[in-house]
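Practice problem 4.
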């Protein structure tokens, strides 16, 4: 299968200057109730670097749904204060209280967002430094992603043995299905679901597990795909479920295409669409990207023209630190 090719940079100088975004990453994207595309980004800075003034996270940008094939074009931003303000209220290197304790918090990072009816939900990780999750929580928007408020729904960092930190979700048949893993890139995937009208009821969530009676819901979770995974993106594309994931263990980005979220991922059609390489071996036109991660499906994609928001961070120099858009044909995985 041909590897993905780069469509466009999405953030950085020349792309997000008017939002005071120089460096940022992630970029999970969903369709708002009003039809706009809503993309949520992680640690964001005013300059084209990591660090310095204008630090905020998460940050939300809006795009028109038309012509995604040319690269997302930003039409506006959310949040208070400066352009593209921080949409979750907290202080970097501040403290927050939960469970009768005071927790130091460095940043709050988004994992995915979803629209259910007229409401958008955003799942985030409350972190003390990268990889050190204190807890995860859900925020809600009633105005198409413009403003966000906490729902009070939280899970401890060790929920599901630490497999419920990085999450991606999608709707079907009255349920929200979620694949999740840890933020340390040393864990496989587990699968959960919740009735969509009870998404904010922690007790209504149940996990997919294997017992002597076979696979079923409301059982202790079983790892559905072993590995060392990072960012995840689950979306319905045409008549299939597409799961894009950053495979840290093999330094690549893979896409799986299945009929159902409970399909056996061990044997599911799967392809590597981007390969991680060193900085002296990059070729974005041929799907070779240095220090890649992320990989979020862009709504409006097809299997023959699947678009992904991909991140890149040169940790030695702190630039590039950006989100980019790649496209690939995964129609051969339809099965």
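Answer key:
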């Amino acid at each position: 299968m041909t590897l993905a090719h780069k469509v466009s940079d999405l953030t950085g100088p020349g792309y997000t200057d008017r939002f005071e975004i120089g460096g940022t990453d992630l970029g999970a994207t969903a369709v708002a109730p009003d039809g706009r595309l809503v993309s949520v980004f992680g640690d964001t800075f005013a300059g084209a670097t990591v660090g310095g003034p204008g630090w905020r996270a998460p940050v939300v940008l809006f795009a028109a749904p038309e012509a995604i094939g040319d690269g997302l074009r930003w039409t506006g931003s959310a949040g208070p204060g400066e352009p593209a303000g921080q949409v979750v209220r907290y202080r970097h290197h501040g403290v927050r209280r939960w469970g009768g304790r005071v927790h130091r918090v460095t940043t709050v990072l988004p994992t995915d967002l979803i629209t259910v009816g007229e409401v958008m939900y955003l799942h985030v990780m409350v972190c003390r430094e990268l990889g050190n999750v204190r807890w995860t929580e859900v925020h809600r928007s009633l105005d198409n992603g413009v403003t966000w408020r906490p729902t009070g729904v939280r899970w401890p960092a060790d929920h599901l043995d630490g497999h419920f930190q990085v999450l991606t979700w999608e709707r079907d048949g009255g349920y929200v299905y979620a694949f999740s893993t840890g933020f340390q890139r040393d864990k496989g995937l587990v699968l959960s679901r919740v009735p969509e009208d009870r998404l904010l009821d922690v007790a209504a969530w149940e996990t997919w597990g294997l017992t002597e009676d076979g696979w079923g819901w409301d059982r202790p979770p079983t790892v559905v795909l072993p590995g060392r995974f990072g960012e995840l993106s689950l979306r319905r594309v045409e008549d299939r479920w597409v799961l894009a994931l950053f495979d840290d263990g093999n330094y690549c980005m893979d896409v799986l295409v299945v009929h159902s979220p409970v399909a056996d991922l061990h044997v599911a059609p799967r392809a590597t669409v981007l390969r991680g390489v060193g900085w002296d071996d990059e070729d974005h036109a041929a799907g070779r990207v240095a220090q890649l991660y992320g990989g979020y499906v862009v709504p409006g994609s097809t299997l023959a023209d699947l678009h992904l928001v991909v991140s890149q961070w040169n940790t030695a120099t702190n630039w590039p630190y950006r989100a980019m858009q790649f496209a690939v044909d995964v129609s051969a995985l339809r099965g």
